[in-house]
Amino acid sequence: LKPTDVQEAIARLLAEDIDETAAENLYDAAAASPAVQERLAQQILVDTCLHMELGKVQPSTEIVGAILDRVADEDDAEPAEAVMPDSTAAWVSPRAYDDRAGRRRAWRVLVPLAAACAAAVAAFFLVRGIADRRPSSAGPRVLGRLADIQGSVRVRQNGGAEQVVRPGQSIRRGERLRVGQGGYARIELADRSSVAVREQTTLIVGPTGAEQRGTALLLEEGAVFCVVQRRITPSEPFVVASAFGARAEVIGTRFEFLVDRVDNRPRATVRVERGFVKLVAGSGASGRVGALKEASVSSGGAPAPASAVRLAAIAPWREGRKPPAAVSDIVLREDFEQGLGRWKACAVFVLSPSRGSRPSGQLTIVDLPKAPYARSAPATGVGHGTRCALLVCRGIKCPSSGKTFRVPTGLCLKNRITACPVIVEWDFRLKKACGPSPRLKLFYRGVLTRRVLVSQPRDIVPGQWYRCRKEILWLDREEDASLVEEKDFVDGKRVYDAHARLGRESTIVIAGIDGEFEIDNIVVRSLREAGGKETK
Amino acid sequence: VAEPFEILVREYHHMVFAYVLALVNDPHLAEDLTQEVFLVAHRRMADYDTTRDFGAWVRGIARRLVMAQQRRTKRFRFVQLEKVEASLTEAFTQPDEAAPSVWQRRTAALRECLEKADRQLRKLLDLHYTRRLGAALIAEQFGIGVAAVWKRLSRARLLLRQCIDRTLQREGTAI
Q1: How much is the pTM?
Q2: Do B18 and A274 touch (CB under 8 A)?
Q3: Which of B11, B31, B104 sits opposite A63 (nearest CB)?
Q4: Alpha-carbon distance A10 to A23, whole Å?
Q5: I need a labelling partner for A224 at 20 to 30 A (CA). Which of A197, A424, A442, A502 fits?
Q6: What is the C-alpha to C-alpha distance for residues B113 and B119, in angstroms, rounded to an integer?
Q7: What is the pLDDT of residues A137-187, one digit of tens each?
Q8: How far apart are alpha carbons A439 and A462 in whole angstroms?
Q9: Left (φ > 0), alpha (ψ -120 to 50) or beta: where does B142 sit?
C-alpha cells in the first residue's frame, strides 16, 4: 500500500466503510510497519475522542448505577455455606425470612440432613427471640461501649430492671437502651462503627436468639445516626430495623434512621449522608436511598421514592448538646470577622446550630498565640505568610447589566496558604441570580497554570442547596510564590482539577457566583487530619 | 457496595468506557464491556495491589475482556497489534494521581483545537461525527470525490492530533 492508500484505508476503517479484503491488506501493512501502527493508534485515539465529543457518544448516566446494582446483587447473593440467618429480617420480620428460606429450599431439592437440622435449630432460636426479645442466657457478647452519654440514659439487661449507665460502660447483645428527654448517647461498636442515639429513643442492640455475625439494631422509637466503618458483606450485614418490620440495610456508610408516627401509624425514615442504604418495608418491598436523599415507609406500605435532603437536616443532633456556637468558637473567626466587616456581608450563615451546622475539625495549630487557627511555616522552609483564612469576598461584575454586585459573592481562602493543605466543604444556595444561567465558579484568583475541566460546569438552580468541596494540596514553593493543586467537587461530582501559581498576596477563591448567595455548614480540615497526604 | 469501590466506579468509569470504545469502536458494546470490567474488578478486588495504579489494573481487565470478545469477531482486531496496543495503553496511562483526568485533558485540548479549526474542517467533522453522514453524501456537499473525503477526514484527524499534542505539551511545560 502507498502512504496515501494507507491514509484512506485508515479513514475508511475507522468509519467502518471497508471490506474484508481491504481490511486484510491494511492489517498486513500495519503488521509489517511500526510507523503504520503508530499512525493507526493515534488516529483511533482522535477518532474516539471526536466520537465522544462531537457525536455525543458517552457512557450513559445510568451506567454507574447499573454497575453498582449488579455488584450489590452479587454481594446480596447468599454464600453457599450460609445456614444461619444472616439478616435481622429473621429477627424482626420472621415471615419475610421464612419466605426466603422456603424459596431457597424449593430450589434445592436435596437438602442435606445437616442443613435441615441447623435450620431447625435456627428456627428454635428465632421463635424464642421473637417471643421475648431477650438475649439468650448463654453469655451475651459485648458489642461495644457507650462512648458518650448526656442526660437520662438507661439500659435494661436480660429483662431485668433498668439501670442508669455510666460513660465507658459496655453494651452487650440484646440490651435495651433508653435515652430520655434531653438525653443523648453514642455507642462505639467493636468494628469502630458508631451509633449516635437521639433523645426519646429506645433501642435494642444486637439480635436476640441465634448468634449472628454483623451488626443489627432494633429501633423501637426515636432516631439513630450510624457511621459504618467497615466493609459490608452479605455474611456481616449492618441493619437497623423498626419494630413494625421496616428496616434499613446498609450499603454505604453514614445515615440516620428514624421511627415516628404519622396519623397514628408508625413510620420509618432513612436519611443518607454518604453511600447507599436499602430501605426495606415489612412486606419485603425495598428501595435504594443514595447520598443526600431521604425516604420513608409506613407500616403496611412500600418505601416512598427517595427525595433530596439537605446535609444539615440529617441528624443535626448527632453530636449531642453543644454550647451555642458563638463567633468566638468559629474556626478562623478573626478572618471571618475581618471579612464580614470589610465586605458588609448579607446573609452568610456560619456554623449556626439552629441550621444544624457543626464544625468537624480545625486546622492544625502551631505557634502564633494570637491567631489560634494559624500555623507557622516550618523553620527550614522558605516560608511566605502562613495563615489560612476564610473570608467573604466582594461582588463581581454582572455581565448583563455591567453593574457590580455589592453583595458577598465569594467564599475565599486568603493566600499565604503555603503551609495549609486543606479540604473545605460547605453548603451553597443561590438566592438571587445575576444573569440567565448562573454557574458556580470554583477557581483561584491566582495565576492558573493549568485548569482541567473534568466535567461540564453546571448551572446552579436558585433556591437549591448544593454541597461543595475543594481539596487544596500544596505542591511546591518558590521564593515568592506557591504552587498548589486543587480538586473541586459539587454534590460529589468532580468539576475541576487545577494547578495554580500563587503570589504572596493572591487570594484563593473557594467559590463565586454572579449573584447573591448563602453558605452554610462550612467544614475545614487539614488534609493530614482527613487522612490525605501532605506532599511536603 | 462498599464505598471505596463506588468511588472507584464513579472516578474511573468514564476513562474505562473511553478506553474500551477505542478498542472496539462500538458505543453499545463499550458500555456493556465497561460494566463487565467493573464487575470483574469487584470480584477480584482482593487481588488488587493497592500500591499500584488502579486505572492500569482496571485497564488490564478491560483489555483481556476486549481481546476475549474480539476472538469472536475479526472486526477491529488491529488494536491487538503490538505497537497499536502499546500506543493506546500509553495514551491512557496516568502520570500521577490525577490519573482519571488524563483522558479528560485530551478531550479539553480537543475542544480547544476544534474552536481554532477552520470552517471547512469543522464542517467536515460535524457532517461525519455529529450528523453521521456517509462519505458519498459528504462528497456531494463538498463537491469532491469520495476518496478525497476519506483523505480529508484522515488529514483532519492528523491535524487535530498534532494540535492536541501541542496543547498538552504547552500545559505540561507551564506546570
Answers
A1: 0.39
A2: no
A3: B31
A4: 9
A5: A424
A6: 12
A7: 445 677 788 888 888 898 887 667 788 888 888 888 888 899 988 889 989
A8: 11
A9: alpha
